Structures are given as structure tokens and as C-alpha cells.
Amino acid sequence: MDSAITKQPAVDNENTFLATPASRAYDPAYDPLIDQTPGNGREYAPTYWIGTAGPAPEDDGPVTGDMDVDVVIVGSGFTGLTAAIFLAENYGIKATVLEANRTSWGCSTRNGGQAQCASGRLKRSQWIQRWGVDTAIKMHEECMDGMETFKSLIKDIDCDPQPGGHFYIAHRSKVMPSLEKEAKLLRDTFNYDAQIIDADTFKRQFVNDNEAAGAMHEPEGIGVHPAKLAFGYLKKARALGVKVHPSSPVTSWKTQQGIHYLNTPNGVVKARAVGLATGGYTSQGLHAEVKNRLLPILSNSIVTRPLTPAEIDACNFNTTQVLTDTRVLRHYYRLLPDNRVQIGSRSSIAGCDAPKQQYENKLYADMVRKFPALKGITLDYSWWGWVDVSHDMMPRIVQPNENESIYYALGYGGNGVMYSAQAGKRLAQWIAGDKSELNLPIFQSRLPYPNVQNIIESEYLAPFRRMGQRFLYRWYHLKDEII
């Protein structure tokens, strides 16, 4: 195997910027808890997805003067574009989408492309603990409906789908009993055909992940090419009359007599309703309704050069289904259609540390621990991006104040590839005044502030989130790897 491998990634000191195919000027350590906006007209991150999607479709150019519109969507990622699509298709409302940088510049072109049947970061058993069985079943039905929404949207978009389901891989044998219990719950309570696969069968029939102590297979799961998907959404939206304006960050915002005035660098956009779909790139200064409501976390991703047939055989890659492991700080990975391996996981805590080489090195080492045959393989792409995690681990698609025509869909916790399509549909319903089916907990409450044992709810705790995050990461590492 080693004879087919050219060289290992550079291992420099921790302050060295990652070596990738493009300049880091696209994202100079942006941090949503610090910076007022994500920028103005920045180029895409040098992701594999952008590198292989082809040219971005035409948009409507930056805002060039004052505008008076009915509906503004802030953010042109998966959620913003699908919300605009559903507003146009279902309600005849042609929204105006404002984007700070290039279209779908943030989460939507930096993720792992895993469309799973999930919403937020909690398991079904945790839904039952939080809301009871009846509501948990309705939440599951919402996710299943979301998968159908997603499949319907992508059926005419060439986004390299890899269907078949999702493997949830036990990274240690001690995890298997809880995985078996969850699978039984999914079958018995939710009528969802989750099956347990023992370690030997999984490694022999699907992929030889060296860490795998067994796995749970879910029937729903699709791998996609995120940038091709985002570009497909953009084409759909504009064909329906939606206007999409990149290089138009919202720099300030005021509301007078129910009318919103959104300032951009080249003009004020006047709107009667505003939907926020800014994901992990929701800056603190965007609007008071979303200030301190999210814990943005960073995720790193790497993509290898194409594997040789011998390397594929050594890893026993017999599946292209999407894969995640059971760590709290989980890894998400798969074999791509061109035989590259993509893997992602947690990164630094603060944006200023994101470019440090140590985070790429750690993820590379994690990949090799799973697939020893890939030791020394070169990387063609490496990047990072922010993920929008809510403080209670579940998203919200909501009108936070019934007296204001402001709405948001945020907090997917890394499960937004699929659920963003459903969230876009639900956000469109809110904006159009169609409240049918909007009776689940995620539609009926704001994103919560960080709190201590659900007693203190105060925005003043927010500056200490990074300190708490460092502690939690250490605890999660102990829980994942040692205890």
C-alpha cells in the first residue's frame, strides 16, 4: 500500500495556516460571536464542493440602491433558498434574498453533504424524555415528512446523490448496548426499521472502519454534493421570480410602525416581513431576537486524493452510504463518487484559532485511526466552517414575537442538509401566515438563552459560553475515549 502513497500532509507548528488549493482570504478567522457581519463579497471557502461544482449560477448582483419589497430572506443557503422557493410555489410570494458574500457561502457549501433523518442533535429516546411519547412520534413524523420534502426538491437537481441509508457506527464496544436499545425503540415505538449489525459483519460487508464495534443502520439517509445542491436551489428560486442579491450584508436594522429597514452597503431595503436563515454565520449584531441564542461551533473537513483500487480494497469500502460514529464529538465520513474519502469533525473553539495546522493534523490522524491503510495519503482539500447549535440541542422555526413580522429557522446542530429543506417550507408557512402543522415544540418557542440548570435565563451568560465550551470539550473527550 505505501508504494502507492505520495506524501503525508505537512506538519508545521500550530500557528501555520493550512495548505489548501485556495487563499485563506475568503474567511479570515471569522467568528460570529465577535464580528458584526460575515463580510462583504468574500469568495467561497476552498472546499471540495466548490472545487468540483462548476461555475456558480447567475444571481441578481448586489443591492445597488434603496428597495421596497414585501419579504426579505437574510441568508442564501439551503434554508433561505428553499424558503424562497416554497413562498413562490405555494403562496405566490416572490421574496428578495440578501446574502453577505457569495450565494450559499456559509454552512451550505462547507458541510459533509449527509442528509439524515434527523432534526437537531437529540436522539429519539431523548425526545421522549423531553416531550413524551406522543410528541416524540409527531417529531419523528416531521422528520420523515422532511425526507420526502428533500427528495422531492432534489429529484431534478444533479447533486451526485448516494442513497441507501445511514450507518451510526459504535466507536467502542461499550456503546453497543445503548445503540441496540435505541434501535429497538426506533422499531417498536416509531415503526422505523433500524437494524443492528455486529462488528464482523459490518467490517466485512460494508467498510473496514478499524474502530467499529458494530453499527446501527437507518433506512433513510442520502449523501449529496452540497454545492451542486445549493446551486440547484439557486436556479430553482430565480426561475420562480426570486431575487438573490450577494455582497449585500445587513449592516444595521430598524423597525418602524411594523416596517423593517435593512441597511446594506449600497442601499436600504424596506420590507414588510423578514425571515432569518443565517445558520452558523448568524452574527451577534444582526438582530436582538437572535443575539446570544446560538452556540456556534467549528467543524473541520478534509478530502483525500482519489483512492486507488488497492486502497479501496484495503479499506474494504463496499458502501457509499453516509457514516457517522457515536462520539459526542462525532466524525462524519463517506466514500465520494470519485473515490475520495471525506471526513469531518470538531475544530477549534474560537474563530481566531481555526486556521491553525493542528486541527487538520488531528482530523487526519483520526482518519488514519479508522483506516490505517490511508496513512500517508495526500489531502486535496481542507477547510472549516461554523455550525449553528442551539443551547437545548434542537432547532427552532418560529415567529419569536407575534407582534413583529420577523421569523427565523436556526439551530440545526449539524443536521441541516436534509432538515433545512423542511425548515425552509415551514419558514415559508410562517411568513405567509399559514400556521397549519406548526404545532410542534420547535415551532412554538424561541431559541433558548444559555442557562444554568434551566433556572437562569440571561443574555449576560453568553460571553462565558466559550469558557464552558472548552470544559465541555475536555469532558466529551474523556467520555468518548477514556471513561
Automatic annotation (TrEMBL):
It comes from Enterovibrio norvegicus. It comes from the Bacteria. Pfam families: DAO. Keywords: Oxidoreductase. Gene3D superfamilies: D-Amino Acid Oxidase, subunit A, domain 2, FAD/NAD(P)-binding domain. The keyword Oxidoreductase applies. This is FAD-dependent oxidoreductase. One of its GO terms (cellular component) is cytoplasm. InterPro entries: FAD-dep_OxRdtase, FAD/NAD-bd_sf. Residues 70-430 form the FAD dependent oxidoreductase domain. One of its GO terms (molecular function) is oxidoreductase activity.
